[in-house]
Write a structure and sequence with these properties.
- The protein has 378 residues and is of the alpha+beta class.
- The chain has four helices and ten strands; from the N terminus they run βββββββββααβαα.
- Helix 3 runs antiparallel to helix 4.
- The radius of gyration is 40 Å and the shape is elongated.
- The chain starts with 5 loop residues before the first strand and ends with a helix.
């Protein structure tokens, strides 16, 4: 028998197991407006390409944890605009109802067409306000990074233990690899991709509902203010109508008395003036009745808007419940993955221990063989 050879192969360090966050913080909308969205043609850099078939909601969102401002517009389940606001951005008004800004990260230029000049002015002012806030946030972040850098320079850094990994013993063969669970790695990667996809779908759906709810709340506030103003005007108009009706009745009585007295009353010119005043009052009464009818229709529209808002709140609650269930499933999946990794590490440790014992037995058998050979030679 030939002497058994022992060899050693270094074990490659495994990448750390990255856990997904258990809870995802939600961005809050701070401003919303409706506009037609365009993007610059990447080929010509001159023509505009419509990004939406109709006017969509364009909102400013603020992430308090990361201190980041974003402009987001969602059409259906597709994000039309997803732009982080930086201090270097500038919103330019190119016409009375159109404005644009450049996004260097996405390598594109966005254009917004508004229905009125007032909406364009409001969006431009909010853009400046958010840009200034982003500049202040960046300055604070840079100051914090400088302080953290100073602390990290003074702190000891010893990462050699983390980068080293225990060697793996191989028997009777150069660089023989141990048991590696490739199927487990494939399962882990596919499970991570599936979880990422589930989180992205839930994020887009929840973002769309948040934007819709914010728009409905804004419209609801405007309608409530208009309704209160309309109710106050209705009461005032009712008083005016009552006064006009009394005046009309009084004029009719005077006209009837004039007609009854015949020649003893005022002249025909006075009759014409009274008739004209009566016709004007009747026309004014008719106009006021039409205004009251329009206000009643607006009140019905307000109730419809209230119903739409309740439905949006209900859908948002359902989405939050689905997100909570999804987070629970993700936690269970992460726990299962963690247990699988621990089990695989334990099995590798047992295999390595068995290999070491086997090497010792082989070494003992080799010594015994050499002893037997010496005895036979003697």
């Amino acid at each position: 028998m030939e002497a058994a050879t022992l060899s050693c192969v270094e074990k490659k360090p495994q990448p750390p197991f990255k856990m997904f966050p258990h809870h995802r913080e939600r961005e809050q909308p701070i401003f919303s407006s409706r506009a037609h969205v365009f993007q610059i043609d990447p080929a010509t850099k001159r023509n505009w390409i419509p990004a939406s078939k109709h006017a969509v909601t364009v909102s400013f969102f603020y992430d308090a944890n990361r201190n980041v401002y974003r402009i987001i517009s969602v059409g259906g389940t597709k994000a039309i605009i997803n732009c982080s606001v930086t201090p270097s951005m500038t919103f330019t008004k190119t016409s009375q109802k159109f404005g644009q800004w450049a996004d260097s990260r996405a390598n594109t230029v966005y254009g917004l067409g508004f229905a009125t000049e007032q909406q364009l002015h409001q969006f431009s002012e909010k853009f400046k306000e958010v840009k200034d806030a982003a500049r202040l946030a960046r300055e604070k972040s840079q100051d914090k990074e400088l302080s953290n850098t100073a602390l990290s320079i003074a702190a000891p850094q010893d990462l050699s233990d983390e980068l080293q990994s225990p060697p793996v013993m191989c028997v009777n063969g150069p660089e023989d690899k141990l048991f590696r669970s490739q199927s487990a790695d494939i399962t882990l990667s596919s499970e991570k991709e599936r979880i990422k996809k589930m989180l992205s779908e839930g994020s887009i759906c929840e973002m769309n509902l948040d934007t819709e709810l914010f728009t409905l709340q804004d419209s609801n506030t405007k309608l409530v203010a208009a309704l209160h103003e309309a109710n106050a005007n209705v009461e005032q108009w009712k008083k005016q109508l009552a006064a006009y009706q009394e005046e009309t009745d009084r004029l009719r009585e005077q006209l009837a008395e004039i007609e009854a007295h015949g020649g003893h009353g005022p002249s025909d010119l006075l009759k014409d003036e009274l008739t004209q005043s009566l016709e004007e009052l009747e026309a004014l009464l008719k106009a006021k009745d039409e205004e009251i009818h329009i206000l009643q229709n607006k009140k019905v529209e307000y109730h419809d808007m209230e119903h739409d808002r309740d439905e949006a709140i209900h859908r948002l609650r359902e989405t939050e419940m689905r997100n909570a269930e999804m987070e629970r499933r993700i936690q269970n999946t992460e726990q299962t993955l963690s247990n699988s990794l621990e089990e695989r590490d334990r099995m590798e440790s047992e295999i390595q221990r068995a290999i070491e014992i086997l090497d010792i037995k082989i070494f003992d058998l080799n010594d015994l063989r050499q002893s037997l050979v010496k005895l036979i030679d003697k």
